[in-house]
Amino acid sequence: MNPSIEDTTQGLQSFLQSGSGSKIVITTHHKPDADALGSSLALYHYFKEMGKDVHVITPTDYPPFLHWMPGNDNVINFEEHPERAEELAMEADAIFCLDFNDLKRINDFGDIVAKSDARKIMIDHHRDPKGFDDHRFWTIETSSTCELIYEYICLNGSEEMIDSDIATCIYCGIMADTGSFRFSSTSSRTHEIAANLLKKGVQPNEIQSRLFDNFGLSRYRLMGYVLHEKLELIPEYNTALVFLTAEELQRFNVQTGDTEGFVNFGLGISGVKLSALIIDRTKLVKMSFRSKGSFPCNELAAKYFNGGGHLNAAGGASHDTLEEVVAKFRAILPEFAEELKKDN
Ligand code: 5GP
Ligand code: MN
């Protein structure tokens, strides 16, 4: 097992195996991505096999290209079923919080999770946990939460319970969070786990195709527009920027997930160290940041945009207007000039 994992789950398994630990809720961050949903559904199938009364509750909807995942039909969207979600969380013996470490990341469902008497178990790979948990299985030195779910299941001596559904969910999250095994978070352990998952029946080409060849035309129309009209280079700070207004999202009939990966366009430009994508989601302005080398996007996101994440991939949110957020982003670049101009 990955030795960097902080594991305080001792005693949890016996609690879960006892009669008093039979009702389980699994939740993950808002607008779940493949790692968030994959880890949640993998754990869901595992607990189902153990005979538990288990439910996955997402704070919001998520992109249609994830709807094929095994178990998707049983996911409860808090925004669509707030009362049912609250009832399940309040009655739960244990609430597993996957791929986030701050209750702010699950919107209004966070207040309910905080209020519930259930044991809270955080399984996550983001920096600076906020400490709402009773147990944790946590490290930043892993590719994904899905990798941690694999380790967690093995730690509990249940490797043989990983069937093709669990394996598919885990593989999907690892593949997405590592950019198909190319980011620096990909370790020899990641590949070892991937190899074991293939032995359980995972079809990598099928998963690749389901995740990446499964978009609507709206995404490609918007992509063309973004590349042609909106991608801006700020050469003095080796920075690329794209911002999108609510009107543009409407004009291109943008669906959840259509802008996935757009933040990487700027990073493909030679010399660019930092790329930002800023989108007016009406209720909130959401930002995504990506960097190359040692530039810490998570520090920038935490300091100025109420966010966080990893060194090379972070995000944030703001209630200011899009214009204000874009102006603020431009205004803070001089503070990071030295790091943005460094060679690595
Ligand atoms: P993305 O840009 O793909 O939405 O997110 C990239 C990374 O930043 C992910 O690891 C995600 O968890 C983190 N992240 C995105 N948005 C936020 C945010 O609003 N707050 C925090 N703390 N992290 C975020
Ligand atoms: Mn993740």
Q: In words, what does this structure look like?
A:
The protein has 14 helices and 13 strands. It is α/β, with parallel strands linked by helices and 344 residues long. The protein has two domains: 6-212, inorganic pyrophosphatase (n-terminal core); 217-341, Diaminopimelate Epimerase, Chain A, domain 1 (Roll). The strands form two sheets. Strands 1-7-6-5-2-3-4 form a seven-stranded mixed beta sheet, with helices on both faces. The protein is globular, with a radius of gyration of 20 Å. Manganese (II) ion is lined by residues 35, 99, 125, 144-145, 177.
Short description:
By secondary structure, the chain is of the alpha/beta class. It has helices at residues 12-17, 34-49, 82-91, 109-115, 145-155, 164-177, 188-199, 204-212, 217-230, 246-251, 263-267, 297-304, 322-332, 337-341, and strands at residues 6-7, 23-28, 53-58, 76-77, 94-98, 119-124, 135-138, 232-234, 239-244, 274-280, 285-291, 308-309, 313-318.
